[in-house]
Design a protein that fits this description.
It is a single chain. Strand 2, helix 2 and strand 3 form a beta-alpha-beta unit. It is built from eleven helices and 15 strands. A seven-stranded parallel β-sheet has the order 3-2-1-4-5-7-12, with helices on both faces. The protein has a domain of 219 residues: NAD(P)-binding Rossmann-like Domain (Rossmann fold, 3-Layer(aba) Sandwich), CATH 3.40.50.720. It has 349 residues and is an alpha/beta fold. Nicotinamide-adenine-dinucleotide binds next to helix 1, strand 2, helix 5 and strand 5.
Length: 349
């Protein structure tokens, strides 16, 4: 067990709350900063219920430098996991300034506050959306970057800023250099096995898995399958789905790596967090029906603008350098999503 204290930004959100559970279960102390713009404080009570441990919560915006400085003064933070941000691709096209302000400026303020407090270990929530066009459908970390929407560009810009920050340490010969892991998530789904925490999207979900489960439970009438004429095995889009609990285990592994010999001299490194295999939309529907015994009413609809036919992770680097790989199967991801959905038909409301 260790007594290190981790600041979790966006800790009341979907992935952040699962990270809090994993950190507390691994013996870390947890401090959360969240402005609750896309979450509820109830989530944190449930994190405490699952783990039987308490955490410290600050309701504040990461762009509030004074609030951050206060947290770094009050708490003995050793590292930061940075989840806070806006994440809806469509919304980012309509409100680019809001996205750049929250995701890019927010990270600048956080990095400044960390620097002033001399806390220089950071695990950042990046995304597979940073990748550009590539010749292969299995993405490796060294593939060209080139996001195609404002949300993806906020992640790309933050990655660039953090790479620059780390590179500056070499130039100035920093005594305690930055140690940064950029974790590029593929498609996180699922929920904690307790069914106490899970994904609680506002309004009608954009993403496939919450949409499917809301159709299955009768909240939504019908799923639209966006395109059945892609050059894939069944014509529908293929993605790399990863259980959220596997994903947050990857964060704890990354944190451990930052504290290890490997990062002794500092550095900023990107890792894919994906399962390394793809499932089509029809695979998801069929497996969902088998696992839950429910029927998913769907129709074939036109392609959704901006969607790629197929991509999934090459997760080898995370295995080699972090000692992490996804363990859970698609059945587990779906069973846990369904457990959460059935126990919380209205989410946290
Ligand atoms: P989420 O919306 O559930 O969680 C984000 C949390 O951050 C919310 O609790 C929100 O209230 C908080 N927040 C937002 N802006 C803030 C600010 N300025 N100050 C303080 N708190 C703020 O989203 P999530 O799915 O848990 O995603 C977490 C991170 O992972 C995000 O950065 C997202 O871009 C990234 N990511 C998510 C996915 C995904 O599919 N869920 C995929 C790739 C990357
Ligand atoms: N999808 C779909 N219907 C929906 C939502 C998504 O057919 O209502 C498809 C989408 O076209 C993609 C896959 O499901 O092929 C995953 O989409 P999601 O929005 O969950 O994640 P993305 O990979 O786009 O970030």
């Amino acid at each position: 067990m260790n007594e290190r204290t981790i600041l979790v930004t966006g800790g009341a959100g979907y992935i952040g709350s699962h990270a809090c559970v994993e950190l507390l279960a691994s013996g870390y102390q947890v401090v959360v900063i969240d402005n609750l713009c896309n979450s509820k404080v109830e989530t944190l009570h449930r994190v405490e219920r699952i783990t039987g441990k308490s955490l410290q919560f600050y309701e504040a915006d990461i762009r509030d430098k004074k609030a951050l400085a206060e947290i770094f003064t009050q708490e003995s933070i050793t590292a930061v996991m940075h989840f806070a941000g806006l994440k809806a691709v469509g919304e980012s096209c309509e409100q680019p300034l809001n996205y750049y302000h929250n995701n890019v400026y927010g990270t600048l303020v956080l990095a400044e506050a960390m620097s002033e407090a001399n806390v220089k270990q950071l695990v950042f929530s990046s995304s597979a959306t940073v990748y550009g066009e590539s010749a292969s459908v299995q993405y490796s970390e060294d593939f060209p970057l080139g996001p195609i929407n404002p949300y993806g560009r906020t992640k790309f810009m933050v990655e660039e800023i953090l790479r620059d920050l780390s590179a500056a340490d070499t130039i100035i010969g920093a005594q305690s250099p930055w140690k940064i892991a950029l974790l590029r998530y593929f498609n996180p789904i699922g929920a904690h096995e307790s069914g106490l925490i899970g994904e609680d999207p506002n309004g009608i979900p954009n993403n496939l898995m919450p949409y499917v489960s809301q159709v299955a439970i009768g909240k939504l009438a019908q799923l639209s399958v966006f395109g059945d004429d892609y050059p894939t095995r069944d014509g529908t889009g293929i993605r790399d789905y990863i259980h959220v609990v596997d994903l947050v285990k990857g964060h704890v592994k990354a944190l451990e790596a930052l504290q290890s010999e490997k990062f002794k001299s500092g550095g900023c490194k990107a890792y894919n967090l994906g399962a390394g295999r793809g499932y089509s939309v029809l695979d998801i529907i069929k497996t969902f029906e088998t696992v839950t015994g429910r029927t998913v009413n769907y129709k074939i609809a036109p392609r959704r603008a901006g969607d790629l036919a197929e991509y999934f992770a090459n997760p080898e680097l995370a295995y080699k350098e972090l000692g992490w790989k996804a363990e859970k199967r698609l059945d587990d991801m779906i069973a846990d999503t369904w457990n959460w959905q059935c126990k919380n038909p209205e989410g946290y409301a």
